[in-house]
Amino acid sequence: MKNGAKIAIVALLAVAVAATFALRGGKRAEYVAPPEPPAAVAPAAQVASDSVRQTAAPAVPGAAKPAPTPAAGLEAAARPAAYPASAKPRLLELGSMRCQACLEMAKVLDALRASQGERLQVDFIDVFEQPEAADRYKVSLIPTQILFDAAGKEIFRHTGYFAHNDILAKFRDLGVRI
What we know:
- It is a single chain.
- By secondary structure, the chain is of the alpha+beta class.
- Helices cover 33% and strands 16% of the residues.
- It contains four helices and six strands.
- The strands form two sheets. Strands 4-3-5-6 form a four-stranded mixed β-sheet. Strands 1-2 form a two-stranded antiparallel ribbon.
- Helix 2 links the parallel strand 3 (90-95) and strand 4 (121-126).
- The protein is elongated.
- The termini are far apart.
């Protein structure tokens, strides 16, 4: 095949990819959670470092009811080095609301909050909104889940989709009671 024909094929593929992204751009809005209302928190109480948004389940195309708004406002993403005695184990997910696997994980995180909310802290950080968090936690792929024990020590790291029961089983395997 001649070089001119190869260049033409590559150019056509590039145009097709660009058109696909442009067309999907309009559909992407239905997957993204609605923006959060401004938090009514005193400036002194706001955390300057990473903040975590607890997200609601994303809207599913064709779903009968709209997606609920995020359940909680902003929380501290990182706990102090020494946890209090009453601290809970923690699951921290670093991802994005623009990532399909992360949107699937949002459903898992909501289920964990519902089933284990009093025994497990579940947090989410959008790495596109807070890129410094990706650096801080050394995340190169999303979604990444980091499991911490009640003392705040990282005990496990997983990348990709991580099912509800698998997360609970991993905590058990690592000797963490939830």
